[in-house]
Design goal:
This protein is 37% helix and 25% strand. The relative contact order is 0.18. It has a six-stranded mixed sheet, sandwiched between helices. A four-stranded mixed sheet has the order 4-1-2-10, covered by helices on one side. The chain starts with 5 loop residues before the first strand and ends with a strand. It has two domains: 6-79 and 151-246, 3-Layer(aba) Sandwich (Rossmann fold); 90-150. A hairpin with a 2-residue loop joins β1 (6-15) and β2. The longest helix is centred in the last third of the chain and has 16 residues, at 165-180. It is built from nine helices and ten strands. It is an alpha/beta fold. The structure holds adenosine-5'-triphosphate. InterPro entries: AAA+_ATPase (IPR003593), ABC_transporter-like_ATP-bd (IPR003439), ABC_transporter-like_CS (IPR017871), P-loop_NTPase (IPR027417). Residues 6-232 form the ABC transporter domain. GO terms for molecular function: ATP binding; ATP hydrolysis activity.
Length: 247
């Protein structure tokens, strides 16, 4: 088997005495899509920030393509594209200027900026000031930014938050395209139908711990028409296996 794109082994995180992430282990192979699901405060964003190297685990190992953040931060960062759950855009810049600024930081061409704006349906409003954008439009711009450099692993924190149903479907299509091109995607979501439609694997978190995980196909087979919602409800009532996700 190839080296995993993402390896998370026995990761814990405590902040100010609060145990926020508990003993999470998972591996992701190239071209796989993993959805992190769970209620508010379950620890999803904290786990994603640790994958990004923004936060360091209290204990455990995280590697991206065999690299650790501590040993080689620049090479590690080059493997990743990140969409944060919240972002304060610079005032006074248009969508084009904002995305082109990020593209130039990464040494990317103007045509890649154009293409990314097209991909998220913002080409027509490229000259509009980003501070006048709706929440969904800002989300799409952040998604374009994460995809810009076409990194091996995309880390998306609640990417469909604020999207209308049309763009929710477009998000699913974009993730499928990324998968076909060999990218891996890990994202958090409260929208279980989105996870059903776009993820290969799902990990349910509660109070920082993995309470259920598996392939989307196996969970749908197990829970029938209730789908991931039924799996989520049951995992909250009686937390199940806490083994390792192999995505
Ligand atoms: N810097 C911090 N200091 C103290 N507590 C924190 C910090 N960051 C996160 N927490 C706490 O850790 C827990 C998990 O937060 P996190 O944002 O990871 O959850 P989440 O699953 O992403 O939630 P949501 O779905 O609401 O976005 C919460 O109780 C939160 O208050």
């Amino acid at each position: 088997m190839h080296k995993p794109v993402l390896l998370v082994e026995g990761v814990d995180k405590s902040i100010k005495g609060q145990h926020i992430v508990r003993d999470i282990s998972l591996t992701m192979q190239q071209g796989s899509v993993l959805a992190l699901c769970g209620g508010n405060g379950a620890g999803k964003s904290t786990l994603l920030r640790m994958v990004m190297g923004i936060l360091q685990p209290t204990s455990g190992i995280i590697q991206v393509d065999g690299l650790s953040w501590k040993e080689n931060r620049n090479a590690y960062a080059d493997k990743l594209g990140y969409m944060p759950d919240d972002y304060a855009f610079a005032k006074g810049l248009t969508a084009w200027e904002t995305l082109h600024f990020w593209a130039s930081l990464r040494g990317l061409s103007r045509s890649r900026t154009e293409e990314a704006l097209e991909e998220v349906g913002l080409a027509e409003v490229r000259n509009k000031n980003v501070t006048a954008f709706s929440k969904g439009m800002r989300q799409r711009l952040l998604f374009a930014q994460a995809m810009l450099a076409k990194p091996p692993l995309l880390v998306l924190d609640e990417p469909t938050n604020g999207l209308d149903p049309y763009w929710m479907d477009s998000f699913v299509e974009l993730v499928n395209k990324l998968r076909r091109e060999g990218h891996s995607v890990i994202y958090s979501t409260h929208q279980l139908p989105v996870a059903e439609a776009s993820a290969d694997y799902v990990l349910f978190m509660q109070e920082g711990a993995a309470v259920r995980q598996g392939t989307v196909a196996s969970l749908l087979e197990q829970y029938g028409p209730g789908g991931l919602h039924a799996a989520f409800t049951e995992s909250r009532m009686k937390p199940g296996s806490r083994g390792q996700v192999e995505a």
